[in-house]
Amino acid sequence: MNTSLSFTIYQTAHALPEKWDNVAKSTIFLKRDYFEILERSCPSNMKCYFIGIFQEHELVGVALSQFLDLNKLTSFGERDQCVKTMLRNFLFKRFSSHVLFLGNCMLTGENAYALADSVPFEEGIKVLFQARNHIDQLLQTQGIKVHLLTSKDFSANEMQRISQTPFRSIFQFTTQPNMVFSIPNHWTNEQDYVNALSKKYRDQYKRARKKAEGLVKQKLSLKDIEKNQELIYDLYYHVAKNAPFNSFFLSKNHFSELKRILKDDFLFYGYFFENKLIGFNTLIKNGEAMDTYFLGYNETIQREKMLYLNMLYDMIAYSIKKKFKTIVFARTALEIKSSIGAKPEIIYGLMEHKNPIINYFLPHFFRYFEPKTNWKERNPFK
After folding, report:
1. What are phi and psi of 50, to 5 degrees?
2. Helix (H, G, I), strand (E, B), or coil: what is residue 54?
3. Which residue numbers in the chain have pLDDT < 50?
């Protein structure tokens, strides 16, 4: 069988081939609708490229690449203000401000590409890297010099297979794990989850629910999201800027575009206290998985009402009720997510710097500057 593959780069969702979604069926985050959302509302320092892989004239693979200009950020995150963090930020601005991703830096998980079963993995990976390098050349013609080439996220199985290709020489890295909650088939409601908890964590659940008295949870429509857009962004930005590191900030219209295009596949829940919106979380239905997305909250009320923990319990309750098999809680807040039953899944990435000297020392730089997260894995179940 002739496995010779070619690729085409698209810069608008409208230009994608007709059968795009047939190939992208494994995840909503590679489908035409989601790419249209990115096109309309991606972060101001991001440019998206959509990759089609062809065998002769048949579409057999799809992928996403993103270019980030970190010079356009006013902040990489304000939580950690130590000397090491300030040095890291300076070096990023000076030597690694232009980053080209194969994959989606806005998500955690295997959302970079999808290949038809007929495509050998090694051949598919090879053409994906060729496509990414072509985008690098396109950027050069626009006077933009890419510093850092990054590919994410790969499972342990994928990384093992990549290690058998010529790309094994590229620096492989891991960061915080993807926290995934698996829902047993016999659970039908929230009480089944509560009953499965050990006494310590059942008490935690009861305490959090008690603290949440006075909060009103409400599913917001597109009109509601648009009406509260400024406040929603303020709540999101408060959480985002206090992260240990940020490479982008969402645009203000991102949530409204998600709701406009994905409709019932995008859920936006607002939390109100004394008739004022004080927090929100978002969910995206992705086949049999429920993907948690961005959230925001008022820090003072969050602490007082244990809002974040209650949001996690609400996500679990909804996903059980709607018969989802897994909940993807992504990175960050690892210990609290572990305490409600999520398990860590190690994911991998590849990284190379265009400067050969920096690239040689890249593993050392990464280990030194990567924010360390010390956490203890919990098992809340009996």
Report:
1. -110, 130
2. strand
3. 1-2, 76-79
Closest among 348, 308, 350 to 329, alpha carbons compared? 308
Q: Are residues 283 and 328 in the same domain?
A: yes
Concatenate the DSSP letters of all residues of 64-78 into one string.
Answer: EEEEEEGGG-S-S-S
The dihedrals phi and psi of 200, each to the nearest 5 degrees, come to -60, -45
Bridge-partner residues for 148, per DSSP?
99, 353
Dist CA 140 CA 144 (whole Å): 5
Owning domain of residue 100: 5-174+346-369
Q: Is the peptide bond before 69 cis (omega within 30 degrees of 0)?
A: no
368 token code pair: 């030194």
| C-alpha to C-alpha distance for 192 and 187, rounded to whole angstroms | 6
Same domain, 144 and 130: yes
Is residue 376, in this structure, part of any structural domain at all? no
Give the residue among 314, 307, 319, 318 at the shortest CA–CA distance from 213.
307
Q: Which tens digit of pLDDT belongs to each residue from 245-269?
A: 678 899 999 999 999 999 999 999 9
Tokens of 191: 């009480």
Element at 135 (helix H, strand E): helix 121-141
Quick check: is 339 in a domain? Answer: yes
**What pLDDT is attached to residue 75?**
54
169-200 pLDDT per residue, tens: 899 999 889 999 999 999 999 999 999 999 99
- How many domains in the chain? 2
Q: Is residue 40 part of a domain?
A: yes
Residue with tokens 């008490």: 203
Rounded-to-integer distance, Cα 293 and Cα 164, Å? 34
pTM of the model: 0.91
What is the rounded CA–CA span in Å between residue 51 and residue 64? 6
CA angle 224–228–233, rounded 5-degree value: 130
